[in-house]
Amino acid sequence: MTDTLPQDTAIEAPVPFAQFGLHPGIMQAIEATGYVSATPIQAKAIPIAMAGRDVMGAAQTGTGKTAAFSLPILHRLMPFANSSASPARHPVRALILTPTRELADQVHANVAQYSSAVPLRTAVVFGGVDIRPQRDLLRQGCEILIATPGRLLDHVEQRNVNLGQVGILVLDEADRMLDMGFLPDLDRIMRLLPPGRQGLLFSATFSPEIRKLGRTFLRTPVEVEVARPNATADTVTQIAYPLEGEAKRRAVVHLVKSRQLNQVIVFSNTKIGCSRLARQLEQDGVRAESIHGNKTQIERMKALEAFKAGTLEVLVATDVAARGLDVAGVPCVINYDLPRNAEDYVHRIGRTGRAGASGEAIALFAPEEERYLLDIEKLIKTRIPRGELELPRSMARRRPVGSGHHAAPGRHAPAAPQDDFFSRPYEPAAAAPRVEAEARPAVVPARRPVGVLLGGKSS
Asked: Which residues belong to any copy of the Helicase ATP-binding domain (predicted)?
């Protein structure tokens, strides 16, 4: 069973954060960031979540989903805020699950910012790094824990964390978690949580699989959607160039150099292709680095920091970075390979044109890839203009792939397996009630009382 709100509650004007009645300490942190008005997803989701209701929220990337769930969480946890040094006084009361390490780290940074003026502890745990510092941190206690599913289960098995007092659960980028095959881990985690918890599920899109997940893990959720499904932002200009082979690489070099672009994200479908392209771009005089699933967490974080700092012109990435990578001012996204799944195109180009800024999405496609472009156009219900790109004749690669500083002379990097993004699809389920609001450019980064959370009876 699901509930709904009247359709005349659509957002027509900016809603100031002061209108929500958030705790003064949280408002102090919001004001310190300079944010004044909520985005549509925040304006709709925050009051519902503050009231203790379950929420299914969908919005385009860059519209402030993190603040939409973290601000209500902080507000509802304020009765438990304390400055005690005892770990027992700081049990995990809110659990935020994310699909990737990068997103977990980003969410943690945002939550820490919003909670900077209140005595609530936050922690983040994810794989790919030494588990011992995380263990020590968890044993100090924290009210809000951000985690990737696999590493969280590692800590549970080692008895580093107890989830018996979790009153709020967030599934962030839930569609991505399904794509990456996290459902078995999610099932295990759910069995460790109290039954009376509040559930908040956020996703870039609503699909039958997501609605089924919502029916499984949420109770009478209110569905909030602030953009038509699978829409691309109006601030992003799209164009596709028919190119193949070496011409694609030459096109990337030409676009970056001729337009003096910096902080460009280039998407490749495979790990080996991602690493190879980054090396080739370096040899062509473009400051580039790659990020994909075979990289260690330290390597990935180092590349991301360099990219955010502007010392890299190009970050070549697989879809591991398609969601959750929040870098302000990315002017351009280039699809070096068209994604095999049309929805990934929406997430990829969502890295540009954020927070109301303009951006450009360029697709490079060989003849055999045009069918993927047609699938994308069918999904977004928009025809992507085709263009012609004239490349300088002098742009030939000067050295062999393995001759750069990334590999020893005469050696090539070993082949890496392709990323596996998709798991077996769910069967369609009945849709939840929907509350629609007109999407506007983001201006911020960003049921009852829960028995277990607030000390009452759980159901």
From this structure: 46-224
Would you say 206 and 58 are in contact if contact means Cβ atoms under 8 Å apart? yes
Do 330 and 244 share a structural domain? yes
The whole-number average pLDDT for the span 37-49 is 92
Q: Domains in the chain: how many in total?
A: 2
Average pLDDT score over residue span 302-315: 90
Q: Same domain for 390 and 439?
A: no
Q: Span 89-98, mean pLDDT?
A: 97
Same domain? 244 vs 347: yes
Answer yes or no: is 410 within a domain. no
Terminal-to-terminal C-alpha distance of the chain = 16
What tokens were used for 397?
A: 């690669």
User: Are residues 243 and 389 in contact, defined by beta-carbon separation less than 8 angstroms?
Assistant: yes
Residue 97: C-alpha distances to residues 137, 151, 289, 383, 386 (Å): 18, 11, 28, 36, 40
Give the number of other Cβ atoms within 10 Å of residue 359's Cβ: 21
* CA 193 to centroid of chain Cα atoms: 24
Report residue 44 as tokens.
């709709």
Strand partners, 264: 314
Residue positions counted in the chain: 459
Q: For residues 394 and 325, state if they share a domain.
A: yes
CATH of the domain at 245: 3.40.50.300
Grade residue 13 by pLDDT with cuts at 50, 70 and 90: low
Asked if the structure places residue 407 within a domain, the reply is no
Q: What is the residue-wise DSSP string for 95-156? A: EEE-SSHHHHHHHHHHHHHHTTTSS--EEEE-SSS-HHHHHHHHTT--SEEEE-HHHHHHHH
> Which residue, chain included where needed, has tokens 């460790």?
192
Mean pLDDT of the chain: 81
Strand-pair partners of 91 = none
Residue 413 resides in a domain: no
| Element holding 370 (H helix, E strand) | helix 370-380
Q: Are residues 128 and 267 in the same domain?
A: no
Question: Looking at the domain assignment, is residue 133 inside a domain?
Answer: yes
Q: Are residues 110 and 246 in the same domain?
A: no
